[in-house]
Design brief:
Elements: E1 25-33, H1 50-55, E2 65-69, E3 72-78, E4 85-97, H2 100-120
Antiparallel strand pairs: 1-4, 2-4, 3-4
C-alpha cells in the first residue's frame, strides 16, 4: 500500500441552484482519475474517513458556507473510445449556506421598511 500526497491545491466550480436562497444547500461532485495505470495495476481509494475531512481543518473556514458531508465514492471509469478501465474516486461535496449575514442585511431591513410603509397609510 502506497500513499501519495501531492502538494497541490485543487479548484473547481459547479452550477448552483439558488431557488431557496439564503437557505439553500448545494452539491458538487469532483472526480479524480488516474490515467497512468489501468485499474488492474492501480486502485484508488479515499485515504481517510469522511468525518476527518470536516474536523481536521483540511479546508479553509468560510463565513458564508458550511460543510454538511463529503462522501467519497470509489468506482471504475471507462475511457471512451478505447474501452480501458481506470480507477477513480468521486468526492461529493454537500454544502449549506450560512444565512445569518443575509438575514441581517437583507431580510430584516426589508421587513422593517415594509412595516413602516404600511404604517404611513394610517397616519393622518
Amino acid at each position: 500500500e502506497i500513499t501519495w500526497v501531492p502538494p497541490s491545491i485543487a479548484q473547481s466550480s459547479c452550477a448552483m441552484n439558488v431557488r431557496y436562497f439564503p437557505y439553500d444547500e448545494q452539491s458538487c461532485n469532483i472526480t479524480f482519475v488516474t490515467l497512468a495505470c489501468t485499474s488492474d495495476l492501480l486502485g484508488m481509494t479515499s485515504p481517510i474517513e469522511e468525518a476527518l475531512y470536516t474536523e481536521a481543518g483540511a479546508f479553509y473556514r468560510s463565513t458564508e458556507w458550511g460543510i454538511k458531508s463529503i462522501p467519497a465514492i470509489p468506482h471504475l471509469w471507462r475511457l471512451p473510445g478505447t474501452g480501458e478501465v481506470f480507477s477513480a474516486v468521486t468526492y461529493q461535496f454537500n454544502l449549506y449556506r450560512k444565512p445569518l449575514f443575509y438575514e441581517v442585511t437583507l431580510l430584516i431591513p426589508m421587513v422593517l421598511l415594509t412595516g413602516l410603509s404600511l404604517l404611513a397609510f394610517y397616519l393622518p
